[in-house]
Amino acid sequence: MIRAESLTREYGTLRAVDHISFTVQPGEVLGFLGPNGAGKTTTMRMMAGFVAPTSGRAEICGFSMEEQPLEAKRQLGYLPEGAPSYGEMTPRQFLAFIARIRGLEGDRRRSRLDDVIGRLQLGSVMDQRIETLSKGFRRRVGLAQAIIHDPPVLILDEPTDGLDPNQKHEVRELINAMAKDKIIVISTHILEEVDAVCTRAIIIAAGRIVADETPDALIRRSRYHNAVTLRFAAAAGLKTVAAELDALGSVEHVEIDEHARSVTAFPKDGAVIVTAVGDLAGARNWALEQLHLESGRLDEVFRSITEQEAAR
Amino acid sequence: MSAIRIIAARELRAYFATPLAYVFMVIFLALMGVFTFYIGGFYESEQANLSAFFNFHPWLYLFLVPAISMRLWAEERKSGNIELLMTLPVTTGQAVTGKFLAAWIFTAVTLALTFPIWITVNYLGDPDNGVILAAYLGSLLMAGGFLAIGSCISAANRNQVVAFIITVVICFLFLLAGFPLVLDFFSGWAPQALVDTIASLSFRTHFESISKGIIDLRDIIYFVMVISAWLYATVLVIELKKAD
């Protein structure tokens, strides 16, 4: 288990992180979300023992980062923001260095090296200098460094930043494959990622936790949750359709998007309206191109939560 | 202990991964030659010793050692690697010592490459090799002192050029402390005890007494303490400023 207890960090008069507390259990993948400058990186740096908190404490598997930093750091694989590594080294030298300093010896070191090289598909670049590698490879070298000692806790600051869609997918697969018995904390501002890998999401804004829920629960906060969007072949007659939908008892209100030739009906209190809307469309014989049930839009939830917080 | 060794080995390898190490060595050896033979008058003195050679070490180190030390921590901070290093299970003390040792070993290797001058003087005459060995030891200790100062200044600055300049200035003061230039300024009015204290802080005074062949424990302790104190200061600076 890892635990943040009222972590606070001040830079001069600026309070970058303001009394953040949470615990994460094995098997959980916690996604850290928030606008840039919200305090995600500072929080992760405090958890990893790079930044000392102004007050509060971080605990990794029962070891306090302040009192037993070496024991705590041994339990931890950490990918710093930007995935730094020694550019003049090759991935082989770099990973061997990290493995040595992590106390991996002999056969164990060889087998762990083989494992991470395979998992992150680094085989083809093992003997090139890291500074000559593409951003995607450098990020993967950083990830390899974080998991080489098979730690029970992984803290990854923007693990998929700078990767192309295929590489992002692979990294998510990797995280999912490791998620079963580990504690994983990732930060990201790619919201689809939260849906793809996280079992829990914490949104922070202005240094405070403003939401701590499962991704599903977050999505249900969206006003689009259970809304139904109908798209038409032609823009004519959208107003009539909107009026008819609005007349349905379970529909709260209707929005028209002329440009996309679509009408979206929002339900009252998250009610399920898709059957009613479908029946109506069938009865009126509308020239539908598409009928789409929205599950919710995470970006819209993210925006409304963080903007509320910023306005306070 | 092993963490220090692993860090030192990595660092040392990094020196030779770039042309920096070779450029440094060539410049160091070339300047050594120029100073010894042209300015020091090694042949003209017609003495079978290496004082013409060792006399210039403090001045060479003044500019060359900060060139090595400036990157020790400044680069680490600038590249963000300090975050990687400081979140590995190593103490700040181990990291500081490891990096310092790598720089010191590198300097020792460079110094060892001046061996042709030792062969030369043995070929030409019959020098006291004990004195020469002592002078090499003193030179290495002095280089360690300069490096430790540079390590601390490098830890305090993200910019390598700034680190270089500040290190040169501080090393210069440590050197000059034993010169009449500084001592005369004090000797007119200050009590003799203070003048002696300032003189005793001089790298040059201690280096010269060792290089005369007198290995006094006090001189060695002096350098060991200077190195320890500045390395300890490096640890404090890093703890304080690592994330800035």
Secondary-structure topology with pairs:
The complex is a heterodimer of chains A (312) and B (244).
Chain A: E1 2-11, E2 14-24, E3 29-33, H1 40-48, E4 55-60, E5 63-64, H2 69-74, E6 76-79, H3 91-101, H4 106-119, H5 135-147, E7 153-157, H6 165-178, E8 183-187, H7 191-197, E9 200-205, E10 208-213, H8 215-220, E11 228-232, H9 238-246, E12 251-257, E13 262-267, H10 274-284, E14 288-293, H11 298-311
Parallel strand pairs in A: 3-8, 3-9, 6-7, 7-8
Antiparallel strand pairs in A: 1-2, 1-4, 4-5, 9-10, 11-13, 11-14, 12-13
Chain B: H1 2-17, H2 20-39, H3 51-54, H4 57-69, H5 71-79, H6 81-86, H7 92-112, H8 115-124, H9 129-156, H10 160-176, H11 180-187, H12 192-200, H13 203-211, H14 217-241
Helix pairs in contact in B: 1-7, 2-4, 4-9, 4-10, 5-9, 7-9, 7-14, 9-10, 9-13, 9-14, 13-14
General form of chain A? elongated
Strand order of the largest sheet of chain A: 6-7-8-3-9-10
Q: Give average pLDDT of chain B, whole number.
A: 88
Query: Which percent range fits the helix content of chain B?
Result: over 70%
Q: Can you summarize the main beta sheet of chain A?
A: 6 strands, mixed
- What's the gyration radius of chain A in Å? 24 Å
Strand/helix succession of chain A? EEEHEEHEHHHEHEHEEHEHEEHEH
Largest interface: A-B, 29 and 21 residues
Oligomer: heterodimer
Overall morphology of chain B: globular
Low-confidence stretches of chain A: none
Strand content of chain B: under 5%
* Average pLDDT, all residues of chain A: 89
Helix content of chain A: 25-40%
Structural class of the secondary structure composition of chain A?
A: alpha/beta
Distance between the termini of chain A: 33 Å
- How large, in whole angstroms, is the Cα Rg of chain B? 19 Å
Structural class of chain B: mainly alpha
Report the count of strand segments of chain A. Answer: 14
Notes on the structure:
The complex is a heterodimer of chains A (312) and B (244). In chain A, the strands form 3 sheets. Chain A has a 6-stranded mixed sheet with strand order 6-7-8-3-9-10, with helices on both faces. Chain A has 11 helices and 14 strands. With 312 residues, chain A is α/β, with parallel strands linked by helices. With 244 residues, chain B is mainly α. Chain B starts with a helix and ends with a helix. The chains are: A alpha/beta (312), B mainly alpha (244). At the A-B interface, helix 2 and helix 3 of A face helix 1 and helix 6 of B.
